[in-house]
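ingest -> validate -> predict -> emit
validate: passed (alphabet ok, no gaps, 415 aa)
predict: started
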Amino acid sequence: MKRYISSLMAFCLMFALVLPVEAKEAESFRDVPADFWAYEQINRCVQDGIVGGYSDGTFKPGNPVSYGAFSIMLARAFYSDELAGYSDQSTATGEAIMNKHGILSGTSRSSASIGASLPREDMAQCMYNVLVDKGAKIPSVQEQSAHISSIPDYTNVSYSCRTGVLVCYSLGLLGGQSDGNFGPKNSMNRAQGCVVINRLRDYFQNNGGTTTPVTPPEQPETPVDPPEQPETPVPPTVTELPEFKMLAGETASDMMSRICVTGYTKGYLSNGSEISDENITALLEKVKSTMPNHTVWDSSQQYNYRSPSFGKYWGNAGKCAGFAACLSDYLFSSDAPLRRHQDYEQLKVGDVIDIRNSANGYKHAVVVISIDRSSGNVYTCSGNSGGEIRWDGYTTFEILNRDTVAPNTYVYSRY
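emit:
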């Protein structure tokens, strides 16, 4: 009996493991008839080599799309020249290209496997990141905000993906489901993937961009697992960062979109040097030379994050919080994890302190530039100190530990 059951299970698995292969026309898929709602979009993606069907003659339009599958689809659609340079055309290669360009930044990929289903909110975030990476014009905050009312379940969208969702709605790249909701946590399926990729391709085509069709490689008989990640991260190459400086007419968000580094490696700063007081201080000195004391940084300087780190706690940060978030992302990269705590003895150079004093209503976000533990002084820099940047601020451990300060004050650390 056991042998019979084992044989039956093996037989079923043999038919269950049907993998995608290349197909030329959507009409060749028996589950995508000509009157199917996404027939034209699927057909276009198949013909252009962005996605294929299955060896059993189906397309399976309702199947969920994984992080890896969407990565290789985006690579074929928007980074085909780069993809052509790889002999390995697997989903792992697609994801490597996406990581290189920061396309997965702000999604839940860091806590999900490459084969996990991609939520619709992460789909929107990926599309937004492609727009940013390709230098597309992004709608203003006011234009984005105008679409909040058209998304009934907007409050269910993760903070890290809200800008992505609003931008895609603003540009007409996304719409609601049949019930009117966006469904941020719902899995994106293969048909939807074809639709949104074509909309994004059309947007670039109509705004001066081009995409090059590619032929998808034949799928392996057996699924290929992504290579094991080394336990010790490979040291990145030390590079010279762009200057931390706003050009004429730029906002804080504009500046960070231009200079912010993605691709975090544990233990290293955004320029590839090891995390240390000495290396952080060197970067801070460069920032001080391009934005010295009295440089204007007032309440108008809002930072709409490229990464979810500070947005999780602050929303879009302006004034002193905007400066602190910008500088932290610049030092550690926008992908660096953020830890919030209240153990002031763990305070380190480069940390952000959001100081709140309930006794007098004082609140100010500062960046730690040096610490003298013998005297108890913590030296800081900040924006919006009277509408300008100041490098001569300080607080003390005694102040941070006061009854009116300690319960309301948080340290934000990238260590």
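The longest strand covers residues 362-372.
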